[in-house]
Each structure stands twice: as structure tokens, then as C-alpha cells.
Amino acid sequence: MSEDRLGERTVRALEGALARAGAPEWDLYYEEGSELSIEVQDGEVDAYEAARSAGAGVRVIDGGRIGFAYTSALDRDAIGAAVQAACAAAAAGDPDALISLPRPDDVRALPEVETTDRSLLEVPIADKIERTRAIEAAARAASPKIARVRKASYGEGWGRARLLNSHGVDLEEEGTLLHCDVMVVAEDDGEEQLGWEAQMGHFLRELDFAACGRTAAARATALLGARPVPTARLPIVLEPHVVCEILDVLAESLLAESVWKQRSLLREKEGQEVASPLVTLIDDGTHPGGAAASRFDGEGMPRQRTVVVDGGLLRGFLFDRYWAAKMGRTSTGNSDRAGFRAPPLLGTSNLILAAGTGGDVGALAREMGHGLVVSELIGVHTADPISGDFSLGASGQLVRAGEPVQPVSGIAVAGNLLGLLRAVRAVGSQLRFYGSAGAPPLLVEALDVAGS
User: Strand runs (DSSP E) across 166-304, as ranges?
Assistant: First the structure.
């Protein structure tokens, strides 16, 4: 993690190639990083991989026409070829007067977001392997019904990026992202059930490896003996990771591009009530808990906290520079880059359903009294992003008098995404992040359950 100016030689070579090509406007995105992944099975290292990478992407804007190219080979010839490819793509494109690049005044007020665990370099590889072993050991020790651990894994990534453009913007950022996860199999009288858990954070101290294993084991053993419940309309408690999966589907509808192209289930609903008054949705690129935490977006605009649904009311949508110009709004810092190999596109950052006061899953189950705690929805990505309708396989626990009485599987839960949000009766207080989505558990008034 050198303190030298990031990618200076590559950046200067790119600038020189752009000048020789006569590119009128441009931006450069240089990125370098490293990754480590460890997998353990039966106490032994089953897979180990360490890699480093670097590359640069270049955009050229010429008369409103835009071209993009990238290179992971950073020699003079490869850099020149990438610039020529971007210029050729721009020359062949259709002009659009709304395309623009930020200027220094646009990016002066960058937020402070700390996402770099500098202690990682001081942690020996052997220590990281032992931590991964601890996941598997904790899962096995949690119950004699844990028949096997399919895979316990740990991964970490470090990266630095530099973004600069022809108007004088020159920004740098650094960050780390770590995760651990495990899949286990519980067995009893010939029946098998799967359980999993995953944790993520920007700092090693945020991961609890033993708890990861114990949680996966508890999920697997809790499903032993699962069977369908009779078809009914029931109150539902959704665990945080299930809510995060729903947010991932809803995310598309919050983007200005989707609204413009009539692909959003929230189109023409701005200023209207679209959810329960208990529901507040926030896109927050500065939240340190989310995987997308950063100081600036893919174009260089400051990341920010944007409330899109406030107490059930739809306040607005998410914009990058292009869609803000097209719809007469301002950028919300929601340009996203998937590394140097792709140009920036409109996207969410950290999408969060704000925590409430309802406590944990158990507290919401007690408030529910009778109903289902849903610990897994199968095929959430198949929900219709335009209508919001869904019918999904599910598993979890049947609850009576606030306590779990029977594991449940082989059922389907059906409804509508907006209908679900409008039916929220209580919001839990324990916010969990899974990737760039964050949510607490939710108590939903009722959903249709198809069972036996």
C-alpha cells in the first residue's frame, strides 16, 4: 500500500496518448488491487488463491459522442491502442449534448469515508487460515447433527483507484473489503438440511468467524423435520438477509433511467405513499457498513446520503450526471463503475431500509404471535421488477404464541413488492448488511402462503 502517487507513470502515458490523438474531452480511471481467498474443508486448506491486478479505462467525449476502451497491459503500445480504440468508438457514436464531465468545483466537498484496514498487512497468512478453520470448527461443535461442512471460506480485497479528467479533476481512493461464509449440512434420520451464513466488513475486526459457523449450523438444524403448512394468508417475519434480497430487486425501480424508460414500478408515484409509514429507504454511498462505501462515484461526483422513501412517501429517484440533465434534476452521486473494464453507469450505492425499534427477529415473532418467520426465499431475482409481483419458494419456522413450533419448507409465498412494503407492521432494530444492501428484520401484516 504505497503512498506514492497512484499510477503516475500510466496516467502520464495515457494523457500523452490522448493529447497526440487530439481528444477534446476525456476521463481516465486507473485501478490496482490485490485479492486473497482461502477455503477450508475438513480442517485442511482446500483452496488458496492470491492475485494482483491493475488496469485503466479511458473515455473520450467528442462533440457529444462518447467512446470507451480499457487495457490491463500498461506498456506504451497497449496504452496507445486503448486511446485509439476509445477515439474510434467516439467518432462512430451518436451525439448527445447531455453528456458531460464534472469540473473541480463539482467535486470539492467530498465526504470522509474510512474503509481501509491497514492492519491486514500485519496479519500473517497462517493466522487468516486459522480464522477460516475456526468457522468450520464452530459449525461442527454447534451440534452433533452437523454431518459435514461443505465449505468454509475467507476472502479479502484491497484496492486503490484514481479518477481524473480533462477539466482538472484528479481524485484518489483506497479501500479494503473482507468476507467470510460457510455452508453446512445437518442430518437426522436420513434427512438433510442446508444452512449458511455470511459476514462482510471493511475491517477484520468486524468479522466474527466462530459466530459465522454457529449461525450456519443453527439454521441447518432448525430446518430438520421441515414440512409444508396448510395454504393460508399469514403474517410474516422476514429475516434481514431476505429483506436485502428484496431490496436488490427494488433497486432498479429507484433509478431515474428505469423511470424514464417506463421500467420502474414506482413510475408516476413521486410524492405518493408507496410504503408503510414505518418504511424509510435510503441510498447512502457514505455508510461505512455497506460494500459500496466510497468518497466519490464513478464519474467523480461526491457520494451522498439520499432519502428516496421517507416514512412511506416516495421523495424522488437516483441520478448520475446524464440522467439528472435529461430529467432536469441534480446528480445524487449514483454513477457506478464495475472496475476499470467498464464505463460508469447509473446504479445504487448502499441501499438501506432504515432500522426501527422492533428489536430482533425473536422480538418481532413474539409481536406477530401466530405466523411464519421466513429465513429463505428462493428465486427472489424472478420477481417482476415492473409490476412487482412475485411467487417464491420459501422456508422458515411456523410460530404460535410468539414461539417457533415447526420448521417449514415446500411452500410458496406470493404477493407484490409494493404491497409487501405497504403491509409492514413493525421494523426491527438490528441492521445487517449483505453486500451493498442493508436491512433489519420486518414484520409484514400478511402474505399468501401456498402449502399443503
Answer: 170-188, 191-201, 232-238, 281-284
CA pair distance 185, 182, nearest whole angstrom = 10
**Which residues pair with residue 222 across a beta bridge?**
none
Write down how long the chain is.
Answer: 452
Helix (H, G, I), strand (E, B) or coil at 326: helix
Enclosing H/E stretch for 309: strand 305-310
Q: Among 246, 154, 145, 257, which Cα is nearest to 197's?
A: 154
Q: Going by DSSP bridges, is the β-strand pair 170-188/65-71 parallel, antiparallel, or unpaired?
A: unpaired
CB contact set of 219 (below 8 Å; sequence gap of 6+): 195, 196, 197, 375
| Torsion angle of C-alpha atoms 73, 76, 80, 82, degrees rounded to 10 | 10
The pTM assigned to this predicted structure is 0.95
> Are the C-beta atoms of residues 370 and 400 closer than 8 Å to each other?
yes
Q: What is the DSSP string of 385-430?
A: TTT-EEEEEEEEEEEETTEEEEEEEEEEEEEEHHHHHHTEEEE-S-
Say if residues 217 and 182 touch (Cβ distance below 8 Å).
no
Backbone dihedral region of 339: left (phi > 0), alpha (psi from -120 to 50 degrees) or beta?
left
Q: Are 43 and 133 in contact (CB under 8 A)?
A: yes
Q: Which residues contact 66 (CB under 8 A, 6 or more apart)?
A: 59, 60, 89, 90, 93, 96, 99, 343
Contacts of 50 by beta carbon, 8 Å cutoff, 6+ apart: 34, 35, 36, 37
SS3 325: helix
362 by Cβ neighbours in 10 Å (0-12 / 13-18 / 19+) ranks as middle
Task: Report residue 364: phi and psi, to 5°.
Answer: -70, -35
Render each residue's pLDDT in the chain as its tens digit; 452 residues: 344 678 899 999 999 999 999 999 999 999 999 999 999 999 999 999 999 999 999 999 999 999 999 999 999 999 999 999 999 999 999 999 999 999 999 998 899 999 999 999 899 999 999 999 999 999 999 999 999 999 999 999 999 999 999 999 999 999 999 999 999 999 999 999 999 999 999 999 999 999 999 999 999 999 999 999 999 999 999 999 999 999 999 999 999 999 999 999 999 999 999 999 999 999 999 999 999 999 999 999 999 999 999 999 999 999 999 999 999 999 999 999 999 999 999 999 999 999 999 999 999 999 999 999 999 999 998 999 889 999 999 999 999 999 999 999 999 999 999 999 999 999 999 999 999 999 999 999 999 999 99
Grid coordinates of 105: 468545483
Q: Are residues 425 and 369 in contact, defined by beta-carbon separation less than 8 angstroms?
A: no
Residue type, 303: R
Task: Report helix angle 209-222 to 125-142, nearest 10.
Answer: 30
